[in-house]
């Protein structure tokens, strides 16, 4: 309906602040840089932006280690710069989501410093998860949980008197101690942080590791997979219980890794997380219309469990990572779409589609890899290289498919340019803690975090004035820069604009999907009857090897050229206008 809340069909653009636009020329992107470039996003045709963390941080995990949730890191600017950015976005008709990191703080957060100083048994330690070690002298960690980033999930502290002391839990880096969400002060603090940012005008929050806040009572040992960077033995693979089907991926070292959290693991997806989000929803709803939203970053399968995060009294959105994870296979992708729509219909929520973000190999490269091999989490020059032409062709087809689906979608900065993963970055410039904690066995996520390319002939491709970017840009980014694609027919940037404009005009995000007779083991084909009731779109993605004959109808947009006889080549998506049924 025309009165439907804005977020149900929104396309939200993820800005990675370090890497979008650098106004002061220090090689790191910043808030003034973002403010100056926001009109690009209005012209692109998105509804909102989500910014990865810009808070005060020692940057051991690129800002996902927050030392002060109520201030801006000086690298990115000031609170006044944030206010100006939010105001400028609103002037342009864009909503603003910020990133909330509630699972852990930085070890430099005032609370954690106080916990270290106050010692065992203190109320300060109780805000985190401190335990005595096992073994005769407490020399062994309290349980066997590993860190998602490699190595063990516990670090032992030295007490004030110099003696080896308690251990604290960190599901991520040593510098990211997990908070104790059973503690009332922790709960209260995050309610206050939500209000702090709502009062500054933000329209919502992307919630980091939303499935991790509550751990199973007693912190029992766990031998199954914990996440992307976990090495999984034969015995553990695929047997995570709870109907979960963890996607298997492979690191450059060849070990099989698990990519997906499941309901069985004691550190993920515990029932207790849901009451936290109900309390948050009450805070957001107290601000009235238009809705301020919560989007769950929760690597949870199956989709019926993920749907539990988007009940009417909890979050509004949850990233559909099954869609991102799906192999380039018509049956697999159709099954994810069907499963997701069914699971979300049950709770009255739209699905939130996503293909790339700052944690995964960019889809222009991912889809150019051998699809029979498990997916990597980072690619080096020594790995089998993606086929760039094939990858981009499939990425365009995948995006054209995604933006035709009912629901909302997220677009990661640079995917609108078809930017590939940077696969030849030297080891000595890599910054991701996953790379360092695994001594390089896991390549990590730097390759998808490389600064944007705005203008081919400017220093750092227009990222910043005369700056050396914090990560090097590959030469190919020059040819893909915004100024090389703007107004160029057939460019990826113009494709995104066309898709977004048509989708918005006829409200396809509010439409309803029915499978078309063309759907087959090698073709994804559905109809979307638009939210404004004026259009029925036939969407066809050819994933098979042979051309598909399209039915009569206007081809409105296609992700690549059609064949001379009008048929749809492989790895191409077309949007056709059908008469309204
Ligand atoms: O990621 C959450 C998380 O669980 C990741 O390990 C995820 O599984 C993996 O990166 C997927 O490829 C979030 C942030 O998005 C990530 O950047 C942070 O490093 C992490 O939380 C810790 O805050």
From TrEMBL:
**Which PANTHER family does the annotation name?**
ALPHA-AMYLASE FAMILY MEMBER, NEUTRAL AND BASIC AMINO ACID TRANSPORT PROTEIN RBAT
Organismal lineage: Bacteria, Bacillati, Actinomycetota, Actinomycetes, Micrococcales
> Region labeled Disordered — which residues?
232-255
Tell me what this protein is called: Glycoside hydrolase family 13 protein
Question: Which residue windows does the record flag with biased composition (Low complexity)?
Answer: 238-247
- What keywords is this UniProt entry annotated with? Hydrolase
Top-rank taxon, per record: Bacteria
**All copies of domain Glycosyl hydrolase family 13 catalytic, residue ranges:** 14-449
The record's similarity note reads: Belongs to the glycosyl hydrolase 13 family.
Pfam families hit by this protein: Alpha-amylase (PF00128)
**One MF term in the entry's GO annotations:** hydrolase activity
């Amino acid at each position: 309906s025309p009165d439907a809340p804005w977020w149900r069909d929104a396309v939200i653009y993820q800005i990675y602040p370090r890497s979008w636009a650098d106004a002061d020329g220090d090689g790191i992107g910043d808030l003034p840089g973002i403010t100056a470039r926001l009109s690009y996003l209005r012209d692109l045709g998105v509804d909102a932006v989500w910014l990865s963390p810009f808070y005060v941080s020692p940057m051991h995990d690129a800002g996902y280690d927050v030392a002060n949730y109520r201030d801006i890191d000086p690298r990115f600017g000031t609170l006044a710069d944030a206010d100006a950015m939010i105001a400028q976005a609103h002037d342009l008709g864009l909503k603003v989501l910020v990133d909330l990191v509630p699972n852990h703080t930085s070890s430099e957060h005032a609370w954690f410093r106080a916990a270290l100083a106050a010692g065992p048994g203190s109320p300060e330690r109780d805000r985190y998860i401190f335990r005595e070690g096992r073994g005769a002298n407490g020399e062994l960690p309290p349980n066997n949980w590993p860190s998602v980033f490699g190595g063990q999930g516990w670090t032992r502290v030295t007490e004030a008197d110099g003696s080896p002391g308690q251990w604290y839990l960190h599901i991520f880096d040593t510098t990211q101690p997990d908070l104790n969400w059973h503690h009332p002060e922790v709960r209260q603090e995050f309610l206050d942080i939500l209000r702090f940012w709502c009062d500054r005008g933000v329209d919502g929050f992307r919630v980091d590791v939303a499935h991790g806040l509550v751990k199973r009572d007693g912190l029992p040992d766990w031998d199954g997979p914990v996440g992307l960077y976990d090495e999984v033995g034969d015995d553990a693979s695929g047997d995570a219980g709870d109907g979960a089907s963890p996607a298997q991926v492979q690191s450059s070292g060849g070990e099989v890794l698990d990519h997906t959290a499941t309901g069985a693991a004691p550190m993920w997806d515990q029932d207790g997380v849901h009451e936290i989000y109900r309390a948050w929803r009450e805070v957001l709803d107290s601000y009235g219309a238009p809705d301020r939203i919560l989007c769950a970053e929760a690597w949870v399968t199956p989709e019926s469990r993920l749907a539990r995060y988007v009940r009417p009294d909890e979050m509004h959105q949850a990233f559909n990572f099954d869609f991102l994870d799906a192999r380039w296979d018509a049956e697999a992708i159709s099954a994810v779409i069907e499963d997701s729509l069914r699971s979300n219909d049950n709770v009255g929520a739209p699905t939130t589609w996503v293909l790339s973000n700052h944690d995964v190999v960019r889809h222009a490269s991912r889809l150019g890899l051998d699809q029979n091999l498990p997916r990597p989490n980072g690619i080096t020059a020594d790995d089998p290289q993606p086929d760039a032409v094939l990858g981009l062709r499939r990425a365009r087809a995948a995006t054209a498919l995604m933006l035709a689906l009912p629901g909302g979608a997220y677009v990661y900065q640079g995917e609108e340019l078809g930017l590939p993963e940077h696969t030849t970055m030297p080891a000595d410039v890599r910054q991701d803690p996953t790379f360092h904690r695994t001594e390089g066995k896991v390549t990590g996520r730097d390759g998808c975090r490389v600064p944007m390319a705005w203008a081919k002939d400017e220093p750092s491709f227009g990222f910043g004035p005369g700056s050396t970017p914090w990560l090097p840009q590959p030469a190919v980014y020059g040819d893909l820069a915004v100024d090389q694609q703007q107004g160029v027919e057939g460019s990826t940037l113009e494709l995104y604009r066309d898709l977004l404009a048509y989708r918005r005009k006829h409200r396809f995000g509010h439409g309803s999907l029915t499978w078309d007779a063309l759907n087959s083991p090698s073709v994804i084909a559905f109809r979307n009857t638009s939210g404004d009731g004026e259009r029925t779109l036939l969407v066809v993605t050819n994933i098979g090897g042979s051309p598909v004959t399209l039915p009569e109808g206007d081809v409105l947009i296609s992700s690549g050229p059609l064949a001379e006889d009008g048929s749809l080549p492989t790895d191409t998506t077309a949007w056709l206008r059908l008469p309204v049924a």
